Amino acid sequence: MTRFSDRIRRRPVLAGFLAALVLTAGCTLPAFAPKAESEGAAAAPGTAPTWRACPEVPDELVGRGATGMRYECARIAVPRNWGTGAAAGATAGPGAGETFEIALIRIRSVKQRDRIGSLVVNPGGPGASGVDTAVYLSFGPGFGGLPTEVTDRFDIVGFDPRGVSRSSPVKCISDAELDASFGYDPDPESQASFDGFVDLNRRIGQQCGTRYGDQLPLYGTEQAARDMDAVRAAVGDEKLTYLGYSYGTLLGATYAQLYPQRVRALVLDGAVDPRQRLLAGSESQAKGFERAFDNFARWCTANAGRCPIAPDARAAVTTAIDKARVSPVRGRDGREATAGWVFYAVISSLYTEQGWQELARSIDALQGGDPTGVFKLADAYAERGDDGHYSNMFDANMAVNCTDETEKPTREQIRSVQSQWRQKYPLFGPALAVGMLGCVEWPGGRDAYPTGKAAGAPPILVVGTTGDPATPYEQTPALASMLGVGRVLTWEGEGHTAYPQTACVTRAVDAYLLSLTVPREGLRCPAR
Fold it and tell me: pTM of this prediction?
C-alpha cells in the first residue's frame, strides 16, 4: 500500500441508518456496494446520457432508498486519454481513440423546488465510490446525510471515477496478495522481513504492469478531473457545484485549475496539499495519525468507564501489536490476527470519533482471545467481505496514487526513514515509511497534476478538521493558499472531514452552496 487511504470512512449516515434499521449499537458501514453495471450503453463523449430508474442501487447498499428520493443511473463514455483536453481525446499514444465508461447516479427529492442545479460529490480514496456516497448522503440529516435545504435545491450526483468500482474498474491485485499486504508486519524491522515486503510489492507491480501495460498512467488525477467536466456537461450544468472529501479535494482543486471559468462553488473538505510529494505526504500522515491517537488515548483516560483499555491506551495497543507478531490469535474463519490486521484496526477506528470506543472494546476482546472486533474494523477499512473477497478500492488507489507521484524515494531512503520515523512517530511512522514501497515498485509512466493558482475561479471553500488523521489540518491552509481563491473553514473536532457534522459547519457550507455566501475569514467552528 501507499499512504493510508484518505477516503471518507464509515460515514455517520450509514452507521445511523443501520442502527435504526436493525437496532444494533455500534454498526459500521458495509464495505461493499453493488458492482453490477448499469443497463444500456454508455452515452458517447459529448452526447446526453440516457437516465433510467435504479432503485436497486440503494436497495443493495443499505436495504432501501431514502424516503422521498428518486434514484436514476446512467453511463457516459470519456476518452481514455484526454491528451491536451480536446473533447475527442488524444490522437496518438496510449489509449488514443478508446474510451472508459463512467457510472453516474442522480438523486432527486420529490420536494425539490427552485432547483439550482446538480451537486456532484466524490468521497476520495482515491478508489472510493461516488455513487455509493451519493446514496449515503441522500438519507438526510437524521442519518448524517445532507441537509434538506440542500437536497431540496440540488440533484445529488455521484460518479465512480475512472478505474473505480462500476467505472471500467482496474483490478490486478489478488485477494491473497491483499491479505498478505494488510496482514504484513507494519514495521518489518529485520532485513529479511523488509525484503519480503519489497518482494510482495514488486509482484503486485509486475502483475498490474503486465495486465495494463502503457495504459496505467491513464488512471491519474488530471485525467479524472477532465472526466468531471464531462460529468458536469452530462447533467446539463453550465458551471460545476461540487462537494469533495479527502482525495476528492485534490480532484476538485485540479478541476479548478483546468476549468476555473466553469466553477460555480467547490467545497473541499479534508484537504490534501497537492504540492506534497510522496515522502512529505507520508510523514504528514504519520504525524496526523499519532496526534489523533494521542487524542483517543486522552479520551480513554478521561472516560475509563467506556474504555476498557484505560488508563494507558497506547501501551495496550502497542502490546497487542507486539503479541500479534509472535502469537497471533486465530479467528473463526481460520485467519490469524497478525500485527498487520491489528494495526489496520487501529487505523480504521481513528477516522471517526465514534470509532474510539469500538477500538477499545476490540483490543480488550483481543487480549481475551477474541479477534472478531479487530477483523471487523480492519476489514471495513480494507473493503474485505466475509467471503475474503476485496473490492477494487486498493487496486484503484495504487493506480492513481502511483501515477500521480513523480518523485519516489529509493528503497535505501525508505529503510532509513523507517528507522527515523520509528523514533518520531512510533506507532504509525514505520508503516507509512514502508508503505511507500508500493509506488517505488509500481511500473509505468507518471502523469503529474497541476499545482498552481485557480486563476479566474470564484472563491473556493476549503474545510479542515484539527484532529483529522488522514488529511492533517496543516494541509487545509496550504491548499487554500495554493489555489489563491481558497477560503478556510476550520472545525475544531476529531476524525476525518467535517461536513455536515455540526450546526456551525453545516450553516457555513449550506450558505456557500445555496447562495454563494463565503464564510468570514478565519471562521472556526467548535467541536460540539
Answer: 0.93
